[in-house]
Amino acid sequence: MPLLIAWILDRLLGDPSWLPHPIVAFGKAIGFCEHKLNRGKGRRVKGAFMALVLVGGVYALTFFFLRGVSLWSYELWIGVQAILIFYCLAGTTLIREVRDVFRAVDRSLDEGRKQVSRIVGRDTAELSAQEVRAAALETLAENLSDGVIAPLFWYALLGVPGMLAYKMVNTLDSMVGYRNERYRLFGCFSARLDDVANFLPARLTAFFMVLVSGRLSLLSFVHRYGRQHASPNSGYPESALAGILNCRFGGPHNYFGEEVWKPYIGENERPLTTDDMLTAVRINRRAEVLMVVLVLLVNLSLLIFYGVTEMLMVVLVLLINLSSTLL
User: For a Cys staple, 132 with which of 94, 112, 144, 263, CB 3.0–4.6 Å?
Assistant: First the structure.
């Protein structure tokens, strides 16, 4: 199946830097549109228009492209789907980055700051070693949601076109969904669209993390702290990981020179260690496997359902023809 092939490729390859990536094209399209439209009056409307056209365009182009490929070759259709799904999964790459952050900060604080700047949007120049490690773990938890669980969630609902459309939503939010002077109006629709797209996946991610940890009692912790986060979604996977590690996330962060306070998640302000990173990676992998298995089961169930339905229709047609002949 395409999903299984794609998932294995992600586990083996991650996101090779030498491989052309559609998300890069998404970013260029967003950058071009933002440069042309984010000026003058009506920025809010123009930003919403851009988001709807780009997301709808990605869905439509992918849908009709795959339809054309399926008419050409079934094997090619399977292969193209597998490649596109592989592009949408970002579990292995982020795990490698987080491991590199912990190794770097163990060598020197400057190295850790530079390494973590690759995966976070906040300013990292003045972070302490503890803050570097916390930033990496917070990002790891968030990425499990928007880099793995959410794409698979939308794949299960809307297939590969829906998966790629979600990645466009996520890319829009990461590029223009900020509340600073430049993007506050133009990017507000993209930010809200991302909130909607991640609402269920973020909570599903937190539940899976708690489930695979074997500590269902932490659901109350997630319920308590997940709602306090500035983001309607990010707090849930972050609070799940904070509960599992018995640590504290949140606090002051700098974005584009402005200090932003995020509510604290957890109360145990203890030093974070490499063992915590290894535990977080293990939880991520288990939750990822659980989601992949569930989506495969859903696909299998649909195949069985459609197969049985088709067989019943054939039998019904035969019975109708037989009854007509007898009459």
Answer: 112
- At 195, the amino acid letter reads D
CA 35 from chain center: how many Å? 26
118: amino acid identity, one letter: R
Rounded (10°) CA dihedral 243, 136, 279, 163:
90
Residue 154 and residue 117: Cα distance in Å, rounded? 29
Round to whole Å and give the CA distance between 27 and 275: 35
114, 132 Cβ separation under 8 angstroms: no
Backbone angles phi, psi at 297, to 5 degrees: -65, -40
User: What's the Rg (C-alpha) of the chain?
Assistant: 22
Contacts for 243-247: CB closer than 8 Å, 24+ residues apart: 243/210, 243/215, 243/218, 244/209, 244/210, 244/213, 244/215, 244/218, 244/279, 244/280, 244/283, 245/137, 245/272, 245/276, 245/279, 245/280, 246/270, 247/134, 247/272, 247/276
The whole-number average pLDDT for the span 69-85 is 91
d(CA 170, CA 194): 6
pLDDT value at residue 313: 64
First to last CA, the chain: 46
CA neighbor of 280 nearest in space, from 250, 251, 249, 242: 242
Return the pLDDT at 308: 62
Question: Closest Cα to residue 203, out of 177, 226, 170?
Answer: 226
Q: What whole-number distance in Å separates Cα of residue 217 and Cα of residue 243?
A: 10
pLDDT tens profile 260-282: 667 889 889 899 999 999 999 99
| 19 class by beta-carbon count within 10 Å (0-12 exposed, 13-18 middle, 19+ buried) | exposed
Judge whether 146 and 170 are in contact, CB under 8 Å. Answer: yes
Cross-strand bridge partners of residue 259: 254
- Contact indicator for 198, 185 with CB cutoff of 8 Å: no
- DSSP, res 270: P
Q: Between these two residues, 55 and 122, which has the higher pLDDT value?
A: 55
- Reference 77, options 85, 87, 67, 86; nearest CA is 67
Q: Which two tokens stand for residue 312?
A: 């019943």
